[in-house]
Amino acid sequence: MARFLLDVNGAKLPVEAPGDEPLLWVLRNRLDLMGTKYGCGEGQCGACTVFLDGQPARSCQVTVAAAAGSKIITIEGLDQNGVLTPVQQAFVDEGAFQCGYCTSGMILSATALLREHPRPTQQQIIDAMDGNVCRCGTYPRIVAAIRRASQRMATEGSSHVQD
Ligand code: FES
Ligand code: FES
Q1: Model confidence over 37-80: pLDDT tens digits?
Q2: Residue 45: how many other CB atoms lie within 10 Å
Q3: Which helix (H) or strand (E) holds 50?
Q4: Is the model's pTM score more than 0.70?
Q5: Is the CB of 139 within 6 Å of ligand 2?
Q6: Quick one: fold of 2-77?
Q7: Which of 136, 139, 142, 143 is the pocket-test mutation for ligand 2 (most atoms within 8 Å of CB)?
Q8: How far is the centre of ligand 2, averaged over its atoms, from the C-alpha of 9 (Å)?
Q9: In the chain, what are the domain boundaries?
């Protein structure tokens, strides 16, 4: 066991864990942040996506020791004072989920996409979301949600894409 001080969603949180424990397990089992999901555990599905220093990362593939010192943002930290981001709101408005298991990873990946490409092409959406698996097959609604969020951000002149 080792002690770490993690920067999670803007809070400094002390945690004791083996240094090689995946960040995913630390978030879920030690910090009770259950929004980040365990899908494959092998870096293949994107359900465990979080931001590390603003970049999307698969938390099942990052050890807690490696994540310590980085700014970690999970789905619980994406909203701003309880207001959903345009991406979150668009997923709700489009009903872009069925069971919802993939949704937090999808939203994190979509947020990263729109930060880089505020008006993404169809191909850019497909390329950016390719690593996120939805077992329920809600891909068309996920794409629609990304388009809706993009349009809303353009209309509002918003760069409200949290990192
Ligand atoms: S659980 Fe991490 S990529 Fe699937
Ligand atoms: S909504 Fe069920 S896995 Fe995507």
Answers
A1: 999 999 999 999 999 999 999 999 999 999 999 999 999 999 88
A2: 22
A3: strand 49-52
A4: yes
A5: no
A6: Ubiquitin-like (UB roll) (3.10.20)
A7: 136
A8: 24
A9: 2-77, 86-156
